[in-house]
Specification:
56% of the residues are buried. Strand 29 and strand 30 form a beta hairpin. The chain is globular. By secondary structure, it is α+β, with helices and mostly antiparallel strands. Bound molecules: alpha-D-glucopyranose (2 copies). Residues 359, 487-488, 503, 640, 649 line the site of one alpha-D-glucopyranose.
Length: 826
C-alpha cells in the first residue's frame, strides 16, 4: 500500500494523505541553519548544533509521535470554524491534502471550506533563517473573511536543559516585540549574544508571546483559545514558555490569492555591541532588521527558492544515470544522493530517531558518509577530512565521536573502537581518487587538536595503519578493543549492571578478543593506501603496506576461515565467534562483505562459498540479516548485540548499512545479477509498494529493517541518518553502474544494463563532464559484462579506464560485451 508517489520530474515525493504510518520527514537547510519537517509540519529548527542552539521545541516520544512544529491555523471569521492546513495539530478534516517533500524544501497544500492554503517551507542559501510562504486562495463563489495564525514555540537554546531544568527555565524566558517582530531573547541579558526572531509580512492583527495566553489553560496545540475566539491578546512572556504567534486578518474576494510570509530566524551580535542603545538591555537590531525586511518580500522569497532549486540541480548533476530501472535511477539521481548530503550535514544528530542531544559526529560514521558525497562537494569533503583527522589521537587511535560545534573529540564516549582509524584511510583514499588532490597528504594536522602537534596528514594515516599492526592478537588478527564496526559486539565489556552503556563501561583487561572484520578492513585500507603512496613515488612505504596486507590475509586464511564462510571474531578467551561450532551467531554478514571486498578468497573459491552461505542463511526478501541464528538471550561475553530482542538492530536485524558490502562482493565475485537482486530488496523506492509494512519514508534508506526473527519482519526503523546512504550509493554508482574514480582516470565497468537498451551516465570528474553511453547486447545473459571497446572523444582506448580529461567535455562510447551484465527489470 502507498501513501503517495514519486514525482521524478520535480524531484519530489508527494504524500497524498496526512496519516502516514510514521511522520515522514524532510530536511531544511544545508549550511548553518537546519530544520526537520514532517508531512504535517511537525519538527524543529536549530543552528549548527541540534542540542546547543535549538530554536524551537519538539517533543520526542510523544503521543502523537510528532508534536511541536511550524503550525498554522486558519479560521473562518464568519463561522468561527478553524483548522490546521497541515492537518496537525487540529487533525480537522481536509477536503484536499498534499505534501511535497523536495530537495531542501517542503510544500504542504490543502483545502477546506473553499479556502486553499499552500505553504512552502525552506531555508534560503547562506541565510540563518527559514521562510514559510503561505499562499491562500479563496475558491468560494463569494468573499471570505479569514484569520491566519502562524506559531512557533521557542526552545531556551540548550535542548537538553530545556527539557529538564524547569526550576530555572520557568524564570528566565524573555521576549521583545518591536515593529511587529517577535524576538526571543532568553539569556541574551547575560552571556549569549544570539537571539531568534519570528516575523510576518502582515502582522497588523497582533501577536502573542506567552504560550499560556495563546493556548489557554489546560489546552493543547489542537485547540488554542486565541484561535477559537479569533483574537490574539498581545501577551508578553515573562518566564514560563515563550512562543511566537502572529495573527493575520484577510478579506479575500472570490478566486483571490494572497501570499503571507513568515520568517523564523537566528542572529548574532558582536559580544561588545549587544545592546541598542548601549547599556539599555534591549537587543541591538540594526543588523538584523534589513535581513528580516528583505525576506518578507515575495520577490526575494521567490528568487531564493529558485536559487535553492538550482543549487541542488547543480550538486546532483555530478552523477546522473539512465539505466532503464526506475528504482535505481530515482534513488541514484535524486534521493540517495540527497540522503548522502543530509548525512554530511547532520551526521547522526537530528531525525525522528536521533533527538539532537544524543550523538555527536561519529569518527567512523563521518568517514564513511564521505564516500557518498565527496564527488558532489569535494571542497567540503577536504575540510571534513582535516577536521576528523585533527581529532585523531597520537597513538593513531581515535575518539569515537566528536562535537560539531567545537570539533573536539568527545571524552565522554572515549576511544578504543579498534576499527575507527582504518576508516580515515578509506575516506582519504576515496577523496584522493575523486579529486587527484594528493597534496592533502602534506597538509599539517594536529593530533587531538593540540597546538604544536601538527604533522602531515600522511603521518596520521601511517599511524592509523600502525595502530592496527601494533594491536594484534594470538591469531595475528586485530584486537577488537571496545568494538569494531558493530558497536554492539562488545567482547571485553562483561557488563552486568542494568542501564550501563556498553560503549563506555570500563573494559576488562587481559583478554585477547580479535576481529576478523577489522582484518578485512585493514587489508582493504592498507592496499588502497599503498596505491596512493606508490603514486607519490614512495616505493618502500608502498611495499611495507602491501606486505602488511599480505600478512593479514595470511592470518585470515589461517584463522578467519570457518570452512564455509569467514568467522566473525575471537572472544576474550580466544574462542571463535561466527562459527559453525557456535549454537547461536554462527554466521555474521560483516566479514563476508568486508573480506571479499578486500579481495580475500576471490582467487580460491572461498569468496563464492561465503557468498553462497550468505544467500542460504542470511538473505530474506526484505534484505540480508546481520547474523544467524539470532541470539535468544543476553550473553555477558558478547555484550550489547545480545541485548536486543531477536530480529532487531544488530541482533539479526537487516542492518542495511552492511547490505551494500554484499552487493559489492557479489560484483567482485562476478555475480552482478545477485548484487542487483540484493540492491532492489532494500531499495526504498521498491519498498514503497509495501509502505504499510515498511512504515518509514519510501524515499530514503533506514538503518534497520526488522529481520526474520522479529514479529514485525520488514518494518523499518531509524530512517535518514545512517551509513546505509553512502554505502548503497557507492554500490549502485561504482559497482552496479560501475563508474569508479581512480587516480589515473575514470574506470568504466558497467554491470547492469537494460537488456539491449543503452545505459547512459553523466559524471563530473576532475573538472570535466564525462558523458558515457554503454551499448548493450540483446543476447541473453551468458556471463558478466566486460568492456570490449572503449572510445573516448572518438579515439579507441585500451582497457576500461578513461584517461583524465584534457578539456571540459569527454564523450565516451562503450561496448560492454560479449557476456552480459545483469539485465535489470524495468
Ligand atoms: C550505528 C552506528 C555505526 C555502527 C553501526 C553498527 O549505525 O552509527 O557507527 O557501525 O550502528 O553497530
Ligand atoms: C546503539 C545502537 C547502535 C549504535 C550504538 C552506538 O548501541 O544500537 O546501532 O551503533 O548505539 O551509538
Amino acid at each position: 500500500m502507498r501513501y503517495g508517489h514519486f514525482d521524478d520530474d520535480h524531484r519530489e515525493y508527494v504524500i497524498t494523505r496526512p496519516d502516514t504510518p510514521l511522520p515522514w520527514i524532510n530536511y531544511l537547510g544545508s549550511d548553518e541553519y537546519f530544520g526537520i519537517i514532517s508531512n504535517t509540519a511537525g519538527g524543529y529548527s536549530f543552528v549548527r548544533d541540534a542540542r546547543l542552539r535549538r530554536l524551537t521545541r519538539y517533543r520526542y516520544n510523544n503521543a502523537p509521535l510528532d508534536l511541536g512544529g511550524r503550525y498554522l491555523y486558519l479560521r473562518d471569521d464568519d463561522t468561527g470554524d478553524y483548522w490546521s492546513p497541515s492537518w496537525q495539530p487540529t487533525q480537522g478534516d481536509l477536503e484536499e491534502y498534499e505534501c511535497r517533500h523536495g530537495l531542501g524544501y517542503t510544500t504542504i497544500a490543502s483545502q477546506r471550506a473553499g479556502i486553499r492554503a499552500e505553504t512552502c517551507y525552506f531555508v534560503p542559501i547562506g541565510e540563518t533563517l527559514e521562510v514559510w510562504r503561505v499562499r491562500l486562495t479563496n475558491e468560494r463563489p463569494g468573499p471570505a473573511r479569514v484569520s491566519l495564525f502562524g506559531t512557533v514555540e521557542f526552545c531556551l537554546w540548550d535542548a537538553q536543559d530545556d527539557a529538564t531544568n524547569f526550576q530555572r527555565n520557568y524564570s528566565v524566558g524573555e521576549v521583545e516585540v518591536e515593529d511587529g517582530v517577535i524576538y526571543h531573547t532568553t539569556e541574551y541579558r547575560e552571556r549569549r549574544n544570539h537571539f531568534a526572531y519570528f516575523a510576518c509580512s502582515d502582522a497588523s492583527a497582533g501577536f502573542d508571546t506567552s504560550r499560556d495566553a495563546f493556548l489557554g489553560p489546560y489546552r493543547g496545540w489542537d485547540r488554542p483559545i486565541a484561535v477559537e475566539r479569533g483574537a490574539v491578546s498581545g501577551s508578553i512572556a515573562h518566564g514560563w514558555q515563550p512562543m511566537g504567534a502572529h495573527q493575520v486578518r484577510l478579506e479575500l474576494g472570490p478566486g483571490e490569492t494572497r501570499d503571507i510570509i513568515f520568517v523564523l530566524g537566528y542572529a548574532e551580535n558582536p559580544a561588545d555591541a549587544k545592546f541598542d542603545p548601549p547599556g539599555s538591555g534591549r537587543v541591538d537590531k540594526r543588523r538584523v532588521r534589513p535581513v528580516i525586511a528583505s525576506h518578507l518580500e515575495p520577490t526575494v522569497v521567490e528568487s531564493a527558492l529558485v536559487a535553492l532549486r538550482e543549487a541542488w540541480a547543480e550538486r546532483l548533476g555530478a552523477f546522473q544515470v539512465e539505466s532503464g530501472n526506475v528504482h535505481l535511477d530515482r534513488m541514484v539521481n535524486t534521493w540517495n544522493a540527497y540522503q548522502c548530503m543530509v548525512t554530511f550535514n547532520l551526521s547522526r544528530s537530528a531525525s525522528s530517531f536521533e533527538s539532537g542531544i544524543g550523538r555527536g559526529m561519529g569518527f567512523r560514521d563521518s568517514n564513511q558518509d564521505l564516500l557518498g558525497f565527496v564527488h558532489m562537494v569535494p571542497g567540503r569533503a577536504r575540510e571534513r577530512i582535516l577536521d576528523i583527522a585533527a581529532t585523531q589521537l597520537p597513538t593513531g587511535g581515535a575518539y569515537h565521536q566528536y562535537q560539531p560545534l567545537t570539533k573536539r573529540g568527545n571524552d565522554a564516549v572515549g576511544s578504543g573502537f579498534n576499527d575507527d582509524p582504518a576508516w580515515l584511510v578509506l575516506a582519504v583514499t576515496a577523496y584522493a581518487r575523486e579529486t587527484g588532490d594528493l597534496a592533502i597528504l602534506d597538509e599539517p594536522v594536529p593530533y587531538d587538536n593540540a597546538p604544536g602537534s601538527e604533522r602531515p596528514l600522511e603521518d596520521h594515516l601511517r599511524r592509523a595503519i600502525d595502530y592496527t599492526l601494533e594491536r594484534l592478537g594470538p591469531h595475528g588478527l586485530p584486537l577488537i578493543g571496545r568494538a569494531d564496526w558493530n558497536d554492539c559486539l562488545n567482547l571485553n565489556c562483561f557488563s552486568d549492571t542494568p542501564g550501563e552503556s556498553f560503549q563506555t563501561t570500563q573494559n576488562r583487561d587481559g583478554g585477547v578478543a580479535e576481529s576478523v572484520f577489522i582484518a578485512g578492513l585493514f587489508v582493504l585500507a592498507a592496499n588502497e593506501m599503498a596505491e596512493l603512496v606508490d603514486h607519490r613515488g614512495d616505493a618502500s612505504e608502498g611495499a611495507r603496506l602491501r606486505e602488511a596486507a599480505a600478512d593479514m590475509v595470511a592470518s585470515v586464511d589461517a584463522h578467519g576461515w570457518d570452512g564455509d564462510w569467514f568467522r566473525r571474531a575471537y572472544d576474550y578467551f580466544g574462542e571463535p565467534i561466527g562459527s559453525a561450532g557456535n549454537d547461536e551467531g554462527q554466521i555474521f554478514i560483516e566479514p563476508q562483505g568486508m573480506c571479499v571486498m578486500a579481495g580475500i578468497g576471490l582467487a580460491d573459491g572461498r569468496a563464492v562459498r561465503a557468498l553462497a552461505a550468505v544467500r542460504d542463511r542470511l538473505a530474506t526478501p526484505h534484505g540480508i540479516v546481520l547474523v544467524q541464528p539470532a541470539f535468544s538471550g543476553y550473553q555477558l561475553r558478547l555484550g550489547e548485540i545480545t541485548s536486543y530482542p531477536p530480529g532487531y538492530k544488530e541482533n539479526a536485524g537487516i542492518f542495511c548499512h552492511t547490505n551494500p558490502w554484499l552487493m559489492i562482493a557479489e560484483v567482485l565475485a562476478d555475480n552482478p545479477l545477485g548484487a542487483l537482486d540484493y540492491y532492489l530488496r532494500i531499495n526504498p523506492s521498491v519498498r514503497e509498494a509495501i509502505s504499510e509494512v515498511h512504515r518509514c519514508e519510501p524515499y530514503v534508506y533506514a538503518q534497520m529493517i526488522a529481520g526474520r526473527d522479529a514479529p514485525t519482519h520488514g518494518e523499518a526503523k531509524n530512517s535518514w541518518l545512517t551509513g546505509t546512504a553512502a554505502w548503497n550509493y557507492v554500490a549502485a554508482t561504482q559497482w552496479l553502474v560501475g563508474i569508479r574514480p581512480e587516480l589515473d582516470g575514470l574506470r568504466i565497468d558497467p554491470r547492469v544494463a537494460t537488456g539491449g537498451a543503452k545505459l547512459r551516465v553523466t559524471r563530473r570528474f576532475r573538472g570535466a563532464t564525462y558523458r558515457i553511453v554503454v551499448h548493450g547486447s540483446t543476447e541473453p545473459g551468458a556471463g558478466p559484462a566486460r568492456v570490449t571497446r572503449l572510445v573516448v572523444n572518438g579515439t579507441p582506448v585500451e582497457g576500461n579506464v578513461a584517461p583524465l580529461p584534457s578539456g571540459p567535455d569527454v564523450e565516451i562510447e562503450v561496448h560492454a560485451y560479449p557476456g552480459s551484465p545483469a539485465a535489470i527489470p524495468a
